Amino acid sequence: MFSRDTLHLWILAGALALVGVGFFTVRSLTIPPSFGQFGHFRGAALETAANKERKLTTRGDCTACHDTLKHEMGKSHERVHCIECHGDGKAHMTSCKDAKAAAKPGVALTCDKTDLMPTNIKDICLHCHQDTIGRAKKHPQIKFDEHMKDNDPKDPKSPMVCMQCHIPHDPDPSNEPDGAKEDKDDEAKPAEAATPTAAPAAATPAVGGAE
């Protein structure tokens, strides 16, 4: 049937044909039906992604329940999401939903708060505010050791040291916690008492012209 001179070519052609048939058979069995429906991707991909369980939480998930004044974010932190400091809060929300479903009239809800409250504010703050090469200069940055010396906090080694002077949701320096303001007032009082009484105005030599 085949000449001796062309037999090897027919064998090679048959092997290639078998490989081709195998390739297209596997391809037809593995490629989803919607592939290529809207271009070079699977048409049902968006629906599949939308039906997946969400891993991360959004600020909207939190403010659905936590919408009081103490939960509002100041202008400097309005783009910071709850998840960045409190974690995803998924277990917390699940426990609240379960508690709400089983709640009895007049009984307060008890939700799981495990791992929800930060235990090391300093590391969270420095993640964004440590002075770092390449970070935009307009972004508030500190050299931590120098910052501690300049502000002399009560407990500089505390992992929550930043909260001694700053309110996490609105950390503008003008919005210090009440306790921090009271401490500074108390520290200022002895200094005021030790200040010598000023001499009468008439006995003080005039410097420059009065306006």
Description:
- The chain has 211 residues and is mostly helical.
- It has 3 domains: 7-51, no CATH class; 55-117, no CATH class; 118-193, no CATH class.
- The protein is built from 8 helices and no strands.
- The chain starts with 6 loop residues before the first helix and ends in a 17-residue tail after the last helix.
Give a quick rundown of the structure.
Helices cover 41% and strands 0% of the residues.
Number of domains: 3
Total number of helices: 8
State which percent range the strand residues make up. Answer: under 5%
Give the averaged pLDDT, no decimals: 81
Q: Note the gap between the termini.
A: 123 Å
Unreliable segments of 5+ consecutive residues: 187-211
Task: Describe the secondary structure blueprint for this structure.
Blueprint (H helix, E strand, L loop, with lengths): L6 H24 L14 H7 L7 H5 L19 H4 L3 H12 L19 H9 L14 H8 L26 H17 L17
